[in-house]
Every structure is written in structure tokens, then in C-alpha cells.
Amino acid sequence: MGRRKSWVCRFWLLILSVSFALGIVAGHAATGADWPTLRRDMTRSGRVPVAVLPPYRQVWVVFFEGEMIPTYTEPIAVDGLVFVGTYSGNLYCIDAPTGKIRWRSFLGGPVLHSPCWENGVLYVPGASGLWAVRADNGGVVWSFQKARGGFSGSPAVSSDLVLCGSRDGNFYALSTHDGNVVWEIPVGAPIRSSSAVAGDLVYFASEDMRVYAAEVRTGKLVWRSEKLWGQTFRDAFPIVVGDKVVIRTNPVLHFGAHVAADTVFLAREAGLADHHWQTIDAYLRSPKIFGSRDQILREQEAIRSRLRAEPWRQTFYILDARTGDRSIIAPVLYTGGCAGIENPPAVGPDGRLIVIYRTAYTNFSLGVAPFVGVGYLDVDTGEIEPIFHEHGLQPPWNTFWGTADEAQSLTTGGSLVYFCHQATLSSLDLESRRLTNIAGNRDSWGGFRNLPWVLNEWHGPARAGLVICGDMLIWQVGSRVIALRGRVESQD
Amino acid sequence: MGSLWRPIVLVLIVGIHFLSGGRQTLLAIPSASAGVKGHTAEQDAGTHQETSRDNKREIQVPTDAEPEFVPRGVLRQEIIRLAERPVFRFRDTAGVLPEEMKPLQEDLAGHIRQWLENEPLAPLVVDIGLAGREIFFAHSGEVIRALSLAIPHLPEPLRKEVISFLDVQWEEHFPLGTQAWYPLGEGKRRERHLWPPNSLENLQPVPGPHPFAHLYAVWCYAFYADRGDRVSKAWPQIYRCWEDFRRTHLPLESRRDALWANGYLAGLIGFLRIAKNLGQQTEISAALDDGEQLGQWCVERFRDGAARLDLPIFENVGQFDRWRAEDMGGFFLPLPPHHKAKPDKFHGLTPEVGQLFVRQAPEAAAAYLKFVDRSLPGWYLVGEERQLHFGENFVDYPDFALSIFQAQAFLGNQPAGQLARWVDIPWCVGDPYFVEKLAICLHVAVVTEEMMQAREPGKY
Questions:
Q1: Exposed/middle/buried for A180, CB within 10 Å: 0-12, 13-18, 19+?
Q2: Which architecture does CATH list for A2-490?
Q3: Is the CB of residue B117 less than 8 Å away from at least one CB of chain A?
Q4: What is the ipTM of this complex?
């Protein structure tokens, strides 16, 4: 096995080296070492097969003088180039090995989400429209804007179509060649979320709080969900796992109300005498947090019952990909915070989703809104298998911030789960259950001080995004892009 | 003021007015007979000039020159000039609107048509995060102001429908009385999402300004909807509103009034115009005293905030916390609860108040707009990621984009084409802020740069 890993590692490094050396950009498909679209693929898995392992070293940091990057976006990385858009309307191409800016292209208005790379062209959503930009030199191929509003979700590309919802209330399929509209679906409300594609269907969600599935080639609507609970799908994206579509909403009441009420509920379900912080703190410092299988299943059933009785508390949805049926209720209560946007899951090594969720049976709690766990969610049964780290009753400092009112994003590579918590980057090895700080620090901006023009933050950036390309971790945090290099080892 | 002083003041007023060439007169509200249909821009402007010239009533100017932050008398002159005639003076833009603005006009008509079809609408409830829930479009003053500003750009029969709708608001939700507040839980919901059962019970509006701030909306109704007669009949209520305001709110207090000060200044300009139309000279004189005081307060605060604007690098979170707990370098006004703030210097701006700031504090105006460019680049994107630099909230309140839009128009004198790019999309059906942004664009498209800048008093 060790020999096999070694050869696979060499193979990937060879691919990377050749790719970087030749600077190939246009005219071919993305490779396994690339991160060509939001969450890496059109199903929005957030997963690469190859883990980047420690030791890590910082290779470069790029900050963008006087510009801000939307906090919910990810860089895109293809063929040794990293692409980042800013509110100032610039799309940057950064040389991945060196961090040098290759080119910059002004797109007329704020770039509002991650581009999608396909066949040497970047499809970039922004306030001034959807732009097709050459990845090799930043030249504009075409742009599309039908009505006021622009695009704030990240597009998907499939069957020579760019598929993206617009803030103007339409979902568009545009020809990749010329930007002409091939079909469109009016939904009567802005679309602020990203789209996903699996098989012949495209999935998207609109601010009418419905999820839609349509045929990629024809635009024929296959199903439309009933109104789901939540204030907005903004910043969300459907994740297609097997025959299920998973999506989260921003809670219908402000997130603080949800978090506080759920803490009380979980304390009661765990048999605590009350929900005072001292009581909860004493509980969290006891072995009771590991629970028994019965306790864990009972808690999950209690959460489902709560969500059935008070459906407006639901922010995590599993829908049947072919019908939109949503009879499976995952026992996932809201976690998120700061910007109020919920923590999205990522696909784990065995195909189950890795989720951050509320539970009293966890040793990940750390912070003012405890009862935060990490687990595997089986989308077919709606059951969560909790994960416990190996470090005792609490995560070590700077390795996991287990508070329900702070934002995290997850990325998985091999057997690692990377936690991108505001300004801290860390990982959990799903095999050894070891937590590791990779970079950054709490209450910083990715381990750095605040930049004077990056004020859109609260004790560090509201959120941050991590992508993996080859042996590099590319981290968008606090309107900086930080590149770290580690060791590559295939785990799949 | 005692009765003995009145003749003296009158003589002074007449004398100074005579010396100034009689150019500083307040614009009268056009009478109901002054038709708006079919006017060209020149005709329309001409009508106004004529009205102004015909009006022989004078405005007093100060006699003492006690040095102050802004020299005494200067602001009085400014307010006279600003009240004299509206910047947005066209009451019908048909025939003068540039071709490239027509799509905006269609958007405006479309949105208003949809709005009226959906009435009665409930006020908008926005629950953005730890800043707390806030209710918008709950006061008829906001609706009257926005729709009145839109009237000059609307085609018939929509224009008539809007005026009829405004007449109903005027009668049933008189903007200076307690009935101005719409029932918060009644009507079709503006939010697109569902609400949990009982979650909208016991809604309480955020305390708003003194109704005096809505006098600008009242003037808009009189002028753009051609409802001077109705407004004139409401003079007793208008007078009482003014009296109550000056009794309870002057001098202004930072803690209570900072967010509404621009609105009060605008309200004063509305009051002066209405009073002028009715020949209420004594009230005009007293209101100009108020105006000088209000203007002084607003300009001083405007300058003071700009002098402290900065974008520091923080050594640690403690520094950041202290910075934001004050007023974030002079740009925002922190409000309870802890996570809430608003760009108060921009709040409630009108073209007239904007001109006052630009003329009295041009460097400050430029500094604020530079701050916006640098640190709030997505300010106009309604419903997108918060731009406000603190608070655990997922989005900024709807008035955030409107305030900065008004600042770009009235402080930055941005051209209509640029403003059009910042109109963005409505927050919801029946969005008065969307209507106001479109209406401002269309007004700006037909007024000249000279009108917007108006650097010299009495220039036109």
C-alpha cells in the first residue's frame, strides 16, 4: 500500500510539474489537480481525492490593494493558475507557484461569486452581467446582461451551456460559444444562489424559497419544490449526493434566535437540569458528551420531531433529485453565524456528507454557543454518525471552533476534512481523528492584521473559502489569498 | 417675537430683499389650475420662474454677524435659496427625457403598476441578524414621498391612478398624524418567504422621526401630484406639527436626532415652501431661524464626521471593537442594539439638503464618497452580502442602499447614467426605495448640471 501511495504521489507531482512548466491553459479539460468551479465539481461536492498533508508552509500571500473579496467565494484553480474576483470589478489571475499576478481584467462591476472554468474560458458572475473571459489572458469573449441585477450565484457549465440564475428573476442557459440565451426559466424572484448539475438535470433555488430542477438541454422544468422555510438561499448551493439534492437556507428568524432556542432544546433532551451556561459547561467537561448509541439516536429523533412540529426551524433540506420529494428530514439544526449564512456540508470519502450540526453528544464544542458536532450524514436514511476527535473533551486551541454562531466551510481531501473557520484553517483526519491547525488564528484575518480597506469583517472575516489544487491549499480569507504547500498523497 | 418687533423685521426684510434684487423668493406651490400635461421642459421651467417672479413676498435675512462655525446668516441665505425652488423642478418629463432613460421609465411604471395591483400591502419586516428586526414602509410619508417624486415620469392613466392612491393615503393615513402608520400586521406580505405562526404578532415599529420630517413628502405631494389645494387646507395641522417640533426637538440632540437631522432640514424646506404659498410670513421668518439652527447643527456634524474618517489597520480586535463602538471613523451612527449602525450623514438626504452640504462642506462630502468607494464597493446591491462594517447580520437594511444612492446623487452629483447602474433591483413588491431611486435617476436626467450644482445663490 505504501509503495502504491508513493507512486500515485509521484504521478500527481509529475502532472503538476508538467502542467506548471508548460503553462497550458486553454483547450483541455480540468484535471484532478484542478479546482475549476465552486466546490470543485458541478455536483458541488467540495471534495478532491487527494489530501494535502502536513507539514504545511506558506508559499505566498496576495492582498488586493483597496479591493474586497466577497467572503463566501472560493478561488478557482486550474493548470497552475488561480482566479479571484473582487467587489471592485476585477478578475485576477494569479500564478499558483509564485503568487504573481498574471493578468487583471475589469468586468464593469463587482464580481459576486466564484467563476466556473471550462475549456479555457472562465464564466464569471457579477453585478454587471455574466462574463466569458479567456483564462490565458483575461480577454473578454462575451458578456450577457438582459435586465437589471446581474448574477450573484456561481454558474455551472454542462452540454456547452452556462447555467446560472440571475438576480433579475430568471434562470438562464447561455451558449458557451456566444452567450446567446438557449433557454430561460422565469421564477419571479431574484436568484442569489449557485446552481448544480448532475446527469441531465440542473438544480437551482430562488428567493421565492423554492428549489427547481430542469433538464439541462431543454430547460423543461422537471419539478419545483414547495416553499421551503428560511429567509433566503443567498450564498447557498445545491449539493447532489447520489439521488438526493441537499441545500441549506438562512433561518427564517434571525440566527441568534435559532441558536439560543436550539441550545435550550438540546440541553433539555440531554437531561441537563437547566440550560445555564455553568450547567452546560460542567456537562461539556464530563464524559457524558460521548453519549450512548441510544442517546444519540434518541436525540436525532427528537430533533426530527421538533422539525416536524415546528417546520419553520428547518434550514437543512434533503430532496429527491428526480421528484423533489423531501420526506427525509435530517436531524440538522442551524449552525452558522456572523453573516447568518449556514454552514454547508461537503462530501466525505465514503460518499456520505460531512456535516457540522447541533448535538449534545460531541467533543467538538468550544465557544459561546456549544453543542456543535461533526458527523457523517447518510442522505438516504437521514441518520448522522457522530465523529469524535482524539483529543479528549474539547478540541485543542485553534483546531476547531465549536460554536454554533460562527461560520465554517468544509472541504475534503482524501481522509482529511479541512475546516475553514473565519480566520482559522485546520483539519481533521477521519482515520486517526486527529485535529491539526494549519494556519491562521482566531480574531485575526487569516493570521494577519486587518487591512484598512477590508472592514467588512467581524473579529476576522465573516467567512472564508478553501480550495485544493495539487499540493497546494489556496485560502481566500479576509480579502487576501493565501497559498500553502503541503505533501500530496492519494487516499482514494 | 413681540408685536413691536414685527414691523421692524418686516422693514428689514423688505429692505434687504430690495437690495438683493428681489431674487431670493420662495417658490410657490403651483395652483391646481397650473396644468402639467403636455408641457415641454422649457415651458415647465418657465412656469416656475414666472410663479417665482410673481411672488412678491420677501424673506428676512439675518442682521447680526456673530461668528460661528458657519458664519451667521450664511445658512439662512442658503436655506432661502434652497427653498426658493426645487432642484427637481419638472412636473412632467414627457418629451424631455433622454431616450436612454426610457427603460428606467418603463421599469418605474412597471413596478408601480405591480405595487398598486397588490395593495393593500403590509409593511416590510426585515430580520437581518443581531441588529434586530426592523419594519419598513410602515409610514405613509415614505410612500407619499416616493410616489410623488415618480409622478412626473409616469404615463397616463397610471399617473392618475397614482395620484388617486396618494389621495387615499392623504385622507386615510395623513402623514403628520398618528394614522400615518399603516397597520403592521395587515395586508399582503411584502416578504417572499414564509413566517412562522404568530411571529408577526405584537410588531412594534422602530421609533421614527418627529412627523416634521415628513413635511418634505407633504410638499412633494403638493408639487408633483398637483395637490396644493389639499395641502393648503391642512395648514392648521402643518402649523401645529411645526410648532410641536420646534418646542420638543430644538435644539437637536445628537443621541435622539442624529439619524433624522437631514430629514428635519428637508422638512423645514417643505414647510417654508408651503408657508410661502399661503403667505404665512411670520411663520417663514421663525422657520428661517429654525433653519439656521438646524443647518448649523447638520453642517457641523457633517464636517466633524468627515474630519475623523479613516481606515485604520488594527493591531488587534480590541482596537477594532473600540473603533466600531464609537462611530467607525465618523461614517456610521451606532444604534441599539449593539450590532446596528446606519450611515446617518446620508440618511434622509434630499437634493436641497445635499446641495447645502456640498456648498458648505465640499471636502467633507468628497471624503464620505471616497470612503464609500473604498470600503463599501457593493453598497448598491440590494439583499446581497452586508457592506456595513460590523454587526452579526447577513444583509444590510433596505435603507442602506437608498441612503448611499441619495448621497451619490445629491452629494456626488453623479450623472443619471451612472446612477442608473446603481438602481439595482427592488427588495420586494411595492418598494418605495426602488421607486425613489428610479425617480431620482429620471429627475437627474432632465435637470441640468447647473441646476444640480447651483453654486451661486439665486443663480436661476
A1: exposed
A2: 7 Propeller (2.130)
A3: no
A4: 0.91
